[in-house]
Specification:
The protein is α/β, with parallel strands linked by helices. The protein has 14 helices and eleven strands. The structure holds nicotinamide-adenine-dinucleotide. The site of nicotinamide-adenine-dinucleotide has 28 residues, from helix 2, helix 4, helix 5 and helix 6.
Length: about 350
Amino acid sequence: MQQVDVGLGKRGYPILIAEGGLAGIGKDLGQRRVGNRYTIVADSQVAELYGQQLLASLAATGLTANLLTFPAGEANKNLATIADLASQLARRGTDRKDALIALGGGVTGDITGFLAAIYMRGIPFVQVPTTLLAQVDSSVGGKTGVDLPEGKNLLGVFYQPACVHIDTEVLATLPPAELLNGIAEVIKYGVIYDADFFAFLRQNRPAILGLDRVVLATVIHRCCEIKAAVVAADERESDFRRILNFGHTIGHAVEAASEFAIGHGQAVAMGMVAVMKLAVAKGIFAREAADEVRQLIVDFGLAPVIPAGLDRQAIKSFLSTDKKAIGGRPFFVLPERIGTVLITDAIEEALIDQVIA
Ligand SMILES: NC(=O)c1ccc[n+]([C@@H]2O[C@H](COP(=O)([O-])OP(=O)(O)OC[C@H]3O[C@@H](n4cnc5c(N)ncnc54)[C@H](O)[C@@H]3O)[C@@H](O)[C@H]2O)c1
C-alpha cells in the first residue's frame, strides 16, 4: 500500500493506492468512521463489474451499505441524475451521518461528489476511482459537478472527499480507449511539472500499455503526488492550479464540438499538441521539445491532430464560452521547457485560428 497525503489542513485526506485494494476498503472505512452507513454510487457498467465486491468488503467489516446506480456515460452527468439519486437517498432514510462512495470513473466521481456536497447541505464521501483518468486526476482535488445543455461542468462546487482508495487491479477490465484517455493526463503531468517523470514515461511506455503492475503503480503514485501538491498550493484554482489545464482549453472545445464523440483524454492530447504549436510560434518553447512530446503522444497511440471533419467555427465558439474564459478571452497553459509552464491569455486570435485549422 502506498499513500499520498493531500495537505489541506482540516480538509486534508489520504490517497491510498494498492493492488487489489477494493477488498480492504471496508476495514479502512470501519477504522476511519467516515459514515454510519454507506451508499455506493456507480454507473451501470461499473456496478456490474465491481459493485458486489465492494458491498462484500463493507459487509465483511459489519458496515451497512447499499448500491445506487445510474446509466453510464457523460450524457448522464446532469441534474436529472442528481435529482433521481437524491430522491432515492431520501426515500431510503439516508441522514447527515451517512456517507457516499463514488465507485467508478470521472463521471461517477463528479456526480457523487456534487450529490454529497448538496444532500442535506453536505455529507461525507469517499472516492474509489476505477478509470486511469479518475485515478490520476479527477478523484483528487475536490472538483465536483455536472453538465448543463449549455456546457460542460457548468454547475459544481469544490468539495473534498474523506479519502481516496485506488485499486490498480480494476484497470485490467478498462477498455483500451479509456486507458488512453488517462494516458493523456499522465503525459500532461510530465510536461507541466516533472521532466524526470516525462523521461520515465518514454522509457516505460510498453510496460504502461501492458499494465505492468509495478510501473503502473509508480505512474499513478507520481501523478497523485503532483496533483496533491498543486491542489494543496491552490485549492480553488485562483492561479497556480490552472497549470493542470495544459491542453484542456482547446481540448474541451474539441470535445464539445465533437458532441463528446471524442473522449476527454483524446481531446486533451490534441489540445496539448495545438498549444505547443502556440508556444513554439511565440518563441517560448523549443520546436525539438514540442516534437518530443508530440512523439510520445503518438507512440502511446493518441491522435495528435484535430480531425479534419470537425467544424472549426464550433471549436472557436466553444473556446470563447469556456467557463474559465474571462470576458470571452480563453487562457492557455504554454510549456517553456518540459517540466515548466506559464499561463497567458495574450494570444492573438489569428494564431489560435492557425493552430486549430
Ligand atoms: N473533477 C475533476 O477534477 C475532473 C478532472 C478530469 C475529468 N473530470 C471529468 O471526468 C469525466 C471523465 O471521466 P472518465 O474518463 O473516467 O469517464 P467515465 O466515468 O464515463 O468512465 C468511462 C467508461 O469506463 C467505464 N469504466 C469505468 N471503470 C471501468 C473499469 N474498471 N472497467 C471497465 N469499464 C470501466 C465506465 O462505465 C464508462 O463507460 C468527465 O466528465 C470529466 O469532466 C473531472
